[in-house]
Amino acid sequence: MIRIPSAPGPSPLPFLGVTARALGWIQDPIGTAGKLFARYGNVASIVRGPLRIASPGPIPAIPWLQRTNGAGVVCVNSAELNREVLNAHERYFMIALSGRLFPKDVEPAERERPVTRLMTGLFHVNAAEHRKHRRLLMPAFAKTRIDAYHADMVRITNDVLANYRVGTTRDVHADLTELTLRIATTTLFGEDEGARGVDLARVMQTWLLTMMSPKMLLRIDGPGLPYRRFLELTAQIDRETLAMVRERKKRPAGPDMLSMLLAARDEDGSALDEDELVGHAGVIFAAGHETSTNALAWTLLLLSQHPEVMRELEDELASLRGTPPSVEELARLPLLEGVVKESLRLLPPVPIHPRLVAQDSELGGHFLPAGSEVFLSIYHLHHDPDIFPDPKVFRPRRWETARPSVYEYNPFSAGPRMCIGAAFAMLEIKLVLAMLLSRFRFELPANTRVDPRVAITMAPSQGLRMTLRPRGLASQLPNRVGGRVRQLAQWPEW
Ligand code: HEM
Asked: How many angstroms from the chain centroid is the CA of residue 225?
């Protein structure tokens, strides 16, 4: 008997079955989720039938899942349900490739071995294994450690800004990618890996897009098929990360995260093995740059469309007299803080994130069988008018009084699996933004279209071209942004 969630949702389409609905979700998860919540409530099936979307590869611990398309997928909205799912992490697993669902005693096929290694990072362990690894990693993310990265962040941002000239138009998304990557490689591996880090990140980006491709639903390791491409890209990332870890081991310990991980010891005195080091490094690297890049790019876009906020922010930043703010000075820039928080609310870099149900459960009065998937929508939570009045409006000053709970506002998620890099990201985003805006105003060229692409993270799919102007430029009406991003927020009209 096929067991699927009891949550209401649309029926499979005639002839096309569940797949067509899954494709609709993959192409536009935010829009699809919005329609499902409006029609079916806060727990809605993406389609009433067996389906898997987020968990690629076999799931040996649930053998019957291999013979079906899966056990159904629901999307979930509301602070209360969010709290329930995020805290019960023995029940709602991160992704199905590890922990109880990918037991270590199952020998992966040779070609799948790099997948299992890359999936030993924090993102992919669950329950007790997750607790153990999180404990080992925490010291590398302690506040004093993070503050020590301030000098590297300033140096790298200055390097990137050295190429900036007033009057030129550039893809700032590409520049920010290079910037956050160099910060990530320096803080993680202790050396600015320059082009090598950028290349690795490009492969990771393709890997992520391949993993999220609708064609992955086929999951056949055959010539020209996406699952084969996924395995090949995984092997490449694995090889390159392993090489960087081995090189790091040869140099003396430093303040970088990898040194901390090499020195970390569990209660029984055991250290992380090479597979675990590669897994952690890969996940921290992947999770730690693209999200920050997108947060910075979305913030520059929002500011370009809200010149009055931009002017006020320039006034606040004028107190820095053009010098990069110290950690203490950053804490005394309330509008900068409000701008970043509001941008993360309105256009969250991770708008929707998945969980795999590890044991039969009930959520919001609905049955969820083991093996079904749950997508939590951060975007819809952040756009709830009961929590944030005029939710689609960019209003940084709301943060002078707004005090939402961590389950109402959680760009970094919440509970035991909350983003381990949240403090790092906030320092990086505020510092880089302050340095960029202390020197330039970023203007959108005429007729710019911005179409968000959601593949776990939300990025502008064609990059983001902006023209550099002198800061404090006399007011003139900005060019209006076009494209699908207009549906995600309310943009000023003029
Ligand atoms: C604006 C920037 C960032 C955003 C919006 C963000 C968002 C998130 C979210 C939503 C999760 C939870 C995913 C889930 O529960 O399904 C997460 C987890 C994680 N993030 Fe971030 N992140 C950011 C920056 C960073 C940085 C800079 C690092 C590392 C330096 C990092 C490393 C991680 C790791 C390792 C996890 C897994 C935590 C665990 O499972 O225990 N993130 N992030």
From this structure: 26
Q: Which residue has the higher pLDDT, 336 or 101?
A: 336
d(CA 232, CA 114): 9
The amino acid occupying position 14 is P
How remote is the CA of residue 292 from the centroid of ligand 1, in Å? 10
**Residue of the CA atom closest to atom 37 of ligand 1:** 123
Is pLDDT larger for residue 378 or for residue 100? 378
Distant-in-sequence, close-in-space partners of 133: CB < 8 Å, separation ≥ 6: 122, 125, 276, 280
- The sign of the torsion formed by the CA atoms of 184, 189, 194, 200 equals negative
User: What are the tens digits of pLDDT across the range 27-49?
Assistant: 999 999 999 999 999 999 999 98
CB distance 93 to ligand 1 below 6 Å:
no
Determine the distance from the C-alpha atom of residue 280 to the mean position of all C-alpha atoms in its chain, rounded to a whole number: 16
Report whether residue 288 contacts ligand 1, using a CB cutoff of 6 Å: yes
- Domains in the chain, please, with CATH? 19-487 (1.10.630.10)
Instruction: State which ligand 1 atom lies nearest to the alpha carbon of 289.
Output: 27
Atom of ligand 1 nearest to the CA of 257: 30
Q: Write the CB contacts of 364 (distance below 8 Å, at least 6 apart in sequence).
A: 7, 41, 42, 43, 76, 78, 81
Distance CA(220)–CA(126), nearest Å, equals: 26
Q: Would you put residue 224 in left (φ > 0), alpha (ψ -120 to 50) or beta? A: left
**Average pLDDT value for residue range 79-99:** 82
Q: How far is the CA of 425 from the centre of ligand 1 (A)?
A: 9
Rounded CA separation 290/316 (Å): 28
Least confident of 38-42, 89-93, 195-199, 387-391: 195-199
Mean pLDDT of 288-298: 94
Contact 355, 374 (CB under 8 A): yes
Residue 429 Cα: closest atom of ligand 1: 1
Task: Say what the pLDDT of residue 200 is.
Answer: 81
356: left (phi over 0), alpha (psi -120 to 50) or beta: beta
User: How would you classify residue 126: left for phi > 0, otherwise alpha for psi between -120 and 50, otherwise beta?
Assistant: beta
pLDDT in tens, 294-330: 999 999 999 999 999 999 999 999 999 989 999 999 9
pLDDT interval class at 218 (50, 70, 90) = low
424: Cβ below 6 Å to ligand 1?
yes
How far is CA 483 from its chain centroid? Answer: 22
